[in-house]
Design goal:
The chain has 249 residues and is an alpha/beta fold. It is built from eight helices and seven strands, in the order βαβαβαβααβαβααβ. The protein has a seven-stranded parallel sheet with strand order 3-2-1-4-5-6-7, sandwiched between helices. The longest helix is centred in the middle third of the chain and has 21 residues. The radius of gyration is 17 Å and the shape is globular. The protein binds NADP nicotinamide-adenine-dinucleotide phosphate. NADP nicotinamide-adenine-dinucleotide phosphate binds next to helix 1 and strand 2.
Length: 249
């Protein structure tokens, strides 16, 4: 019960890694606030998790993020752990990358995540923790992944610099970077057919030393560790949850 009497805000908490984290935080006693775009899956998550509250809010929409922050602040909510997890995938080789694809992915995965943190900062209490979902994709030279990888690499820079800027306020900022994880994201990369998604899954498994995809709950465990007092002397790090993919290449 590491999160008893703690409030946790998870942006992108209605599916995959975010949902597994919502469940894990709640199991350890947290009062969970979660966001997403899809109202049906937000409602389903809130229904399953006692005391959870859900908000439909697009992370790419800065005014929606500001409104959410203002509403929570007016209610006097103090956030102990902020998990910035919203993200989308999208594959295209360099010649096929359009400005629209670039902007769609970056407006969520980089610009959206950065400004969401900025807007939520006033909610964070002393000793608060921020965990951001990166990806080993920012370090693996996977052909076709340039747009996503660039956004996640940018997000890693954001994590390190915010860790430095906020350290004196007693706020820790860390990143959890998953390898291939079995979640709906693998099947809904922008512009990818089902057949291509199957091929991508096989290609991903073949480069994981553990020869399997990870489970969302395995990423959630790392998120809970980084956000808890267990990690009280840890800030500015990227924790890989990837079955050895990056370090054992
Ligand atoms: N699965 C992997 O192999 C893998 C590997 C490395 C990194 N990651 C990262 O892990 C994170 C979670 O992905 P996942 O694999 O769990 O996929 P997922 O099941 O598709 O979950 C993505 C989450 O982000 C939310 N989201 C996406 N766009 C959003 C927006 N504009 N505003 C608000 N919420 C938004 C989704 O909500 P809606 O469903 O309502 O849109 C959902 O809750 C992402 O940042 C992803 O890049 C995943």
């Amino acid at each position: 019960m590491r999160y008893e009497d703690k409030t946790v805000l998870i942006l992108g908490g209605n599916s995959g890694i975010g949902l597994a984290s919502v469940e894990a935080f709640a199991r350890e006693g947290a009062r969970v606030l979660l966001t997403g775009r899809n109202q049906a899956t937000i409602d389903a998550a809130v229904e399953r998790i006692p005391g959870a509250r859900g908000y439909q809010a697009d992370i790419a929409d800065l005014s929606a993020m500001e409104a959410l922050a203002n509403n929570l602040q007016e209610e006097g909510v103090v956030v102990d752990a902020l998990f910035i997890n919203a993200g989308i995938g999208g594959f295209a080789p360099v010649r096929d990358v359009t400005p629209e694809l670039w902007d769609e992915i970056h407006s969520i995965n980089l610009r959206g995540c950065f400004f969401a943190i900025q807007k939520m900062l006033p909610l964070l209490g002393q000793g608060g923790a921020i965990v951001i979902t990166g990806s080993i994709g920012s370090d693996v030279a996977l052909a076709g992944n340039v747009v996503y990888a660039a956004a996640k690499a940018g997000l890693k820079a954001v994590m390190r610099i915010l860790a430095k800027e906020l350290v004196e306020e007693g706020v820790r900022v860390n990143m959890v970077s998953p390898g291939p994880i079995e979640t709906p994201l693998i099947n809904r990369n922008v512009g990818m057919s089902d057949e291509d998604a199957d091929k991508l899954r096989e290609a991903m498994i073949s480069v994981v030393p553990m020869r399997r995809l990870g489970e969302a709950s395995e990423v959630a465990s790392a998120v809970l560790f980084l956000a808890a007092q267990d990690a009280s002397f840890i800030t500015g790090v990227e924790l890989l949850v990837d079955g050895g993919s990056l370090e054992l290449r």
